[in-house]
Amino acid sequence: MDHRFQVSLRGVIDLLSHHLYSSPGVYVRELLQNATDAIRARQHMEPGHTGIVRLELMEKQDGSPPTLLFSDDGVGLTEDEIHRFLATIGESSKREESLAARRNDFIGQFGIGLLSCFMVCDELLVVTRSARGDGRTLEWRGRHDGTYDVRQSEHPLDRPGTQVFLMARADMTEWFTPEKLRHLAKHYGGLLPFPIQLTSGGHTERLNPDGPPWRREYDSASDRRKALLAYGREVFGTDFIDCIPLRSTAGDVDGVAFVLPASPHFNARQKHRVYLKHMLLSESAENLLPEWAFFVKCVVNANALRPTASRESFYEDESLALAREALGQSLRRYLVDLAHEDPRALQRLIALHGLSVKALALDDDDFYKLVIHWLPFETSLGVMTLADYRRAHPVVRYTPTLDGFRQVAQVAGAQGLCIINAAYTHDAALLEKLPHVVPDAQVEPFSAADLPQSFEELSLDEREAVFPLLRMAERVLAPFRCGVVVKKFFPAEVPTLYSSDAEGTFRRDAERAREESDDLYAGVLEGVMAAASGEPAQLCFNLHNPVVRRLAAVADREVMKLSVEMLYVQALLLGHHPLNAQEMALLNQGLLGLISAQLGRTDDGGEEGGGPGSRGFH
């Protein structure tokens, strides 16, 4: 035996007020949507019909809660439609087969909007006369406990339309003041194409006299820009730096985007104001523009996108995806026009919103060609645009990591090498893309292992002088898989440079992980390390450095050994290489050895601070 679901209207209303709708004030939006759909349905029957919506606040002298009369001159309802659409949750007049071909003209599609009124009142009175009916005026009285009755009205309407009477619940009177109703009606229906009037205290005013500002005619482009920026300031409370027209045939979307005066976090999703068929849908829509477009906030109207049940966002479907792509193209055209017509403005925009511009350049080859040489990059010789870099350096060299750049920046700059720090978001990908888009461009990754190739070689006499140091260093560093070389480079204050290729860096990381892991994982890492190839790391001594020159002449082999160990550890630390356990032990032993040697000199009566032969080791 089949049974029917029993629906608790109280429970449904609680669901609406606490989970579906953002505030009780949406009852004004729902009534506006119903009135809008009714007017559009009548316009299909009578193409010359213009339509009007009236709100009349009737405040009582005895201090009892006020009553709001909400009326429209739309298509109205027949008795059959009253039972079907006012008393059946989930049923919608917009689903009638006779109107299926015109469904996109209507806003409401879920048949639950009228229930929002029960968030602010306990009883609804709907008085309606259908333009398709027999001319009778009918009354539907619904109560929050789920009961209702229908009867013929004793006060017939003289023309088709609908009136909704709402008597405020005592705890909801704040939603029935002239100020609140004015704000809510303008907020939700300010762009509707037919008049909305509010009458209160004997005074009547129109709440939506102007329509969408981006569709108005202006005397000049500067007047249009000024008016739109003023509109953006009114809507968002922000002084934007520019405005961009938006248009998409997919979803029938149009509007305006405003360029933010300061760059948000690149992970931030901007919240946009979105209208559906000129009714406010959401002030926090996040999925309308591409992710890279976080440098703008927009106001748009969509006529053919599908709203969610709460009518506060859009469903993710093919139409929304196509609209998002088309709106992204509008932003692309704006940036392309800037590159051609006002490069300085583009530079200012890049300075404010570089991440967004870079993301767009990665996504669009034509835009990449326009902006890539305007983009600034940090280099070992200072910040410069890629155009300035390429004018002085035919080969673009970069390090993909911040540690890699720190390891080479000081020494490379002293040699006159210009290396780009491509560790910032998108920079490495942008540089790697350069030869694929610009045919004559040469791009090479750079690491500390490439630096010694630019250093000055020693003379024969210098090689003989440093031979003892070289032999001692090779013996000391052999357990660390580190080779040794002596060259001359700048700056002279840098005594040593540690360098390794990617394989060597990987091996160091694996060794540290093995030391910190259990036996099982350590065994796995052992196998990985055994399979790793690549050149050994290298420690390059700088003969321009006075400490290295004096060290090469030291006769005490223990002092030389201790000094080499300390210079090795110092080079690792300067290169931002984490120390493994063996290297930490070397550092501790070296420090203790230096302290012991210094204390011994003091005990022997030498000058505190050491003699001339010890200055290079402090």
Automatic annotation (TrEMBL):
Q: Which Pfam families match?
A: HATPase_c_3 (PF13589), HSP90 (PF00183)
Q: Please list which residues make up the signal peptide.
A: none
Taxonomic superkingdom: Bacteria
* UniProt entry keywords in alphabetical sequence: ATP-binding, Chaperone, Nucleotide-binding
Q: Which Gene3D superfamilies match?
A: 3.30.230.80, Histidine kinase-like ATPase, C-terminal domain
The entry's family comment says: Belongs to the heat shock protein 90 family.
**NCBIfam families (UniProt xref):** PRK14083.1
What is the official name of this protein in its record? HSP90 family protein
Record the organism: Pyxidicoccus parkwayensis
Lineage at the top is:
Bacteria, Pseudomonadati, Myxococcota, Myxococcia, Myxococcales
